[in-house]
Amino acid sequence: MLVRETLEALFKGVFVEVWEVIHPGILTTIQDRGRYGYQQYGVSVSGAMDKFALRLANMLAGNDDGEAALEMTIVGPKLRALRACRIAIAGADLSPQINGRPLATWQPTEMQEGDVLSFGTARSGCRAYLAVYGGIEAPLTMGSRSTHILSKLGGLNGRALIKGDRISIRNAGGDLRRFNPDFSLRREQIPSYGREWQVRVIPGPQSDYFTRRGIAAFYSAEYDISPQADRMGYRLRGPKIEHKAAADILTDATPRGSVQVPGDGNPIILLSDGQTTGGYSKIGVIISPDQDRLGQARPGDKIRFRRMGVVEAQRIIQGEEERIQEIKRASLITI
Fold first, then answer.
1. Residues 124 and 224 both lie in one domain
2. What DSSP string describes 42-87?
3. Where do runs of H (alpha helix) occur along the chain?
4. Tally of domains in the chain
5. What percent of the chain has pLDDT over 70?
6. Cα–Cα distance, 282 to 280 (Å, whole number)
7. 333 occurs within a structural domain
8. Is the pLDDT of residue 2 over 60?
């Protein structure tokens, strides 16, 4: 269990250092559910690429599901525990170990002072989320602790973790007195990650800019994720999507999940750190649950698009949220 000193400090609202970064991994950043309400000023939403995995990691650690956690990409960090803490890892399998012993994901785990948590390369998926009871502390910037590296907002000075960083926790909603000690996820509640993805798409605001042949290619062809893939978005390679005329439009809003098609006919999926406006025609917008799933996709993976209407998409999104709330209720004891 957590040491008494840590619990007392948390309930007093004192920030407590919990990890020292021995090695930062390829790209490890502090993320929460994102920075909303500022896109009109050109500020990206940011936040976890896979919000589903972030939320479940927090629930398993005993937190509210919107707390900040570490997002780890492909190769995770090496962290030394500065005190006892309760953690949970969800999302990609990055071969986690504590003191060299394999560690199961999608379940809570106790670390003791001096323990070393390390990660190898990804066995499945792309991004894993490390949550710690109490929530990771970082200054609130426009209502979020999420890191946006290009604009140097949020997280630790707006950057990825580096060697020597110390990570602190805070008590902002998590309460182990309410955590159900018998809580565990059912097998069917844990997603699996392959290398082929079918994503559901609502027709975009400029879908009439494309020829019938171009639209048919988009919904029938298979596309590869190119090496130009990061938190801003994924450039795809595959059959060209044909425009009726020019690809450019008057610049307008580009929500997360937008599928832009520039003049070369290769689609671009905009994701968490994507720009807020753009001048390429948008053939579709990916529904939010599938945006999260794409946070686990890697260069070389295959993508197919499936068209759906707004009403069906809303029903899917509502069902996904109901499943998350069911898990949340199961993780807590009513007091």
1. no
2. T------SSHHHHHHHHHHHTS-TTS-EEEEESB--EEEESS-EEE
3. 4-11, 51-61, 212-220, 288-294, 310-331
4. 2
5. 93
6. 6
7. no
8. no
